[in-house]
Amino acid sequence: MREMIIAMGPMFWLILFFATLALAVLAERLFYFHRININSGEFLRGLSALLRSGQYDECLHEARQLPGPMARVVEAVLSRPRLPRHELREIALEASEVEVYRIERNVRTLLVCATVMPLLGVLGTLLALVSFYEQPGVTDGAAAAPVVAATLQQALLLSAAGIALAIPTYIFYMFLASRARKLINQVERAGLECVHIIADARDEALSKKPEEKPAPEPEKDGE
Question: I need a labelling partner for 58 at 20 to 30 A (CA). Which of 8, 90, 130, 168 fits?
Answer without folding.
Answer: 90
